[in-house]
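Run log // design_07
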């Protein structure tokens, strides 16, 4: 692995996330995960836009909706998510989206916001259980994690098979979802080759083809990052 994007989960953590991006091979995003939305009720799109003026910031998020844990009230999750969408629209940076058991509402919000003002920005979604509808409805990009290697995750693999071949990247989602054969351990970027091998198997690609396709997609999505 030659480079990576470090994902921000809440604004108070942004300085630490950004500090890592001082490394020449690390970039970052800025945003608030839906679990943290309750602590970001006053988050305005302009705050995100101001942070995104930094060229080391390459995406807006992680943001979205999580109706599985409901650690923040749903209406607050939706309101905070909409601020991220506005910021992505204004900056042209990709929106890094988390959605869990919120597929219908997620699609409705994205479609409604797009109808207000079509955005040049793209949306990147985790591929997990319950993302199939969102995949079909919003024309997003997709990140495949270790969950695709789990024996019981055939529903996830089915979604991976349907994704546009030129819009797939791989992710850790660390410290969670370590791929087989590391399942149960703290996840880390060193395990990404196992995800890549599974992706190749699911799509019927060689490992080299999977590596080339995901690398091409990465640079097409995160356009602030210059290809080496």
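design_07 sequence
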């Amino acid at each position: 692995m030659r480079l990576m994007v470090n994902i921000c989960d809440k604004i108070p953590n942004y300085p630490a996330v950004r500090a890592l991006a001082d490394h020449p091979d690390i970039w970052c995003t800025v945003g608030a995960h839906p679990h943290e939305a309750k602590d970001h009720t006053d988050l305005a799109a302009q705050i995100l836009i101001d942070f995104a003026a930094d060229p080391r910031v390459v995406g807006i998020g992680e943001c979205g909706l999580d109706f599985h844990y409901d650690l923040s009230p749903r209406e607050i999750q939706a309101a905070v998510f909409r601020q991220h969408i506005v910021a992505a629209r204004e900056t042209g940076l990709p929106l890094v989206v988390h959605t869990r058991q919120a597929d219908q509402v997620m699609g409705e919000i994205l479609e409604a916001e797009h109808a207000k003002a079509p955005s040049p920005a793209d949306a990147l979604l985790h591929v997990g259980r319950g993302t199939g509808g969102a995949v079909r409805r919003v024309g997003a990009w997709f990140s495949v994690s270790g969950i695709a290697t789990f024996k019981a995750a055939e529903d996830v693999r089915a979604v991976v098979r349907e994704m546009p071949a030129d819009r797939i990247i791989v992710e850790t989602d660390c410290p969670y979802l370590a791929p087989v054969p590391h399942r149960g351990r703290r996840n880390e970027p060193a395990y990404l080759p196992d995800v890549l091998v599974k992706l190749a198997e699911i799509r019927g690609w060689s490992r080299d083809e999977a590596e080339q396709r995901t690398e091409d997609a990465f640079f097409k999505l995160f356009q602030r990052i210059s290809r080496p």
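The domain at 1-121 is CATH 3.20.20.140 (TIM Barrel).
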